[in-house]
Amino acid sequence: MNVKKLNLLLVLIPVILFITSFESPAAPISEISWPTHVQDFPVLSADRACHVWMAVIERPIPRRFIGVYRLESKNPKAICILEPPELTGIGPPAVVETERGCIVAFPVEQKDRWRIAYAFINSSSPGETTCQFIECEGNANLSPSVVVVGKRACIVWESNAGAARGIYASWVDADKAGPCLHLSTAEANSYNPSIAATENGKIYVAWDCFFDKQSNIYVAQYHDGKWQPGQQLTADPRIERHPSLATYGNQVWMAGAVV
Question: Could you give the 3-state DSSP secondary structure of residue 154?
Fold first, then answer.
């Protein structure tokens, strides 16, 4: 059997070569013009003075950083760039307005470890603004979401600091970051946090969690100066993921993906 197969191959190969020798010459390959400055994952937020702030990943070869802009009329005005030293990776940013400008939070990789960087920005921020970092355990701190309450901001993110991937929170201001608090259950993997605050000062965080062969939405509240235990919000045999929170007055709205 092996001999017959080998003979068949020896017959077919010359035939293929004979046929292809009469094909027309291949058309010249055109050169592909790759962009030298790529922008990805833009996010927007408007402050009380109706200024719209934008943060976006920028990759002008060979650099990578977060560009921060204020949109004026139809043209964005470059305010500053956020480029931590020795970075080898950068992730999608989150931005929210403050009284004087905005705060931007984003994941950055340095020395094979991802952590959350942030910066408070206003119109007079220097061209290359220095970032601060949230010191959380784990080497994959990703997907930040941020809200401002008073003169502080609360950042939530996803981390592999524990036995399971979890949702963590930290209060930050212009001077320092507070301790990291674990909001989700330690027994199951949790992902994709979203945070929002109501006018009465309550904070809501939603995330998706895969537990007991189901993916559902969970939520935690912050009020009276402390975080309340997370609670399961949905119970559906379908897959529910990627919650997104918004508030109007003291109302909380949520959208998400259901499969």
Answer: strand
On whether residue 226 sits in a domain, the answer given is no
Quick one: CA dihedral 117, 140, 150, 250, positive or negative? positive
Candidates 161, 160, 257, 166; CA nearest to 215 is: 257
Residue 5 domain-assigned?
Answer: no
The whole-angstrom separation of Cα 152 and Cα 141 is: 21
Q: Mind listing the pLDDT tens digit for each residue in 75-112?
A: 889 999 999 999 999 999 999 999 889 999 999 999 99
For 150, which DSSP code?
T
- Where in the sequence is the domain holding 120, given as residue range(s)? 34-138
- What pTM value is reported for the model? 0.85
Domains of the chain: total? 1
Q: Which element (helix H / strand E) includes 15? A: helix 2-20
In a domain, 100, yes or no: yes
